[in-house]
């Protein structure tokens, strides 16, 4: 490392955030990008640790010490080259990744870890500013045509890699614009859509073709895509939401988180909204579910002018720092306070939703009870039990269900191809990412279940590699004949 003692001289300093009173008035990006000097200073904290656990903690295997070192030395182009060798979209992960790598940082054993995610963002934004990110179409085409169904992070990563291999790639997306969950699920205050459009413009110039507003398995017959392409990658995500089968669920004013977020994103970008409006303005909002999606709903409701926002979670409140059960470098389940929470929300843990109550067909109250988790010796695990006489009521006229997702939507291409599913309802594949249908592959949440964007990028890259080997073997067999 350029400065092996940098971590002794410089303390961890994250990006500044725009003031709450300012950012609540818009949907613009919250963090303020660091200056070149600040970025290089933070990169100096990457120590000569010998065994960088950040590598194994990062799903895409980013070369973190390498690009931190180049960044500190001011070799921005070399830092960018190292970064793009493992990550197709660092401008996206640099903004929304939960930074699993930082929890594996050796410095984090007894000090604050390196600001790896923000360093990554500094490198890619400097590369865009300096003109290092430019279209590089493949010099030679293989003659093979590949279809990618779905344009979320897994689909885009697969398309990018397959195009780099020289295959002709067409991406099919049923929505009006490419991006999948990146565009329609993640609020602009976390990921402005200009960031996606900037990358899409490069992919298009490199030769990737996008067919938007096309529902494969709907108006576009599955048999056509199978007959017209040499291989297909299914990257449709995991969009079937987990529901609550309790009394009062049919009342108006209760919506799935993704329906709420998608509609908000469409409204912000000026796109047409097809369903009845879901608006938190002046309402008492209850978000059920304590994950990142729930946090995004909190931030959105605050920007829409909710009179109050409450978020409840059935699991106990996580610890604020590592406990013996979560030693370094294991990823710890710690309390996360997002920028949305900082903007205003009441948070409650160990809360079970019992029933919804309403007036004139619309939800008005949610009856809840406290729960506790106790160890059951017979089952050898923690079991949930309701706390006696703990029932209480939360006033709410808009309820958002942020309970996660159970499996991909199986209607359409999955059903028509009769693809085998695993025990959880995800698309079953072999180690080579090929489904039960020859020449059809799957990647991302549709294969592994709902997960992180960085895992989706990894999946897309791996599936593309397997598809390239499959197509290359087909060419070799044809030549031998």
Walk me through this protein's architecture:
The chain has 481 residues and is of the alpha/beta class. The protein has three domains: 6-130, Orthogonal Bundle (Fumarate Reductase Iron-sulfur Protein, Chain B, domain 2), CATH 1.10.1060; 145-239 and 416-480, FAD/NAD(P)-binding domain, CATH 3.50.50.60; 243-403, FAD/NAD(P)-binding domain. The chain has 19 helices and 18 strands. It has helices spanning 6-9, 20-23, 36-43, 53-57, 64-73, 76-84, 90-96, 100-103, 116-130, 153-164, 181-184, 193-205, 222-228, 257-269, 292-303, 339-342, 413-416, 445-448, 453-480, and strands at 16-17, 31-32, 145-149, 168-173, 209-212, 231-234, 240-241, 254-256, 284-288, 308-313, 346-349, 351-359, 362-376, 381-386, 392-395, 398-401, 405-407, 440-442. Strand 10, helix 16 and strand 11 form a beta-alpha-beta unit. Helix 3 (36-43) packs across helix 5, helix 3 (36-43) crosses helix 9 (116-130) and helix 7 (90-96) packs antiparallel against helix 9 (116-130). It is globular, with a radius of gyration of 24 Å. The termini are far apart.
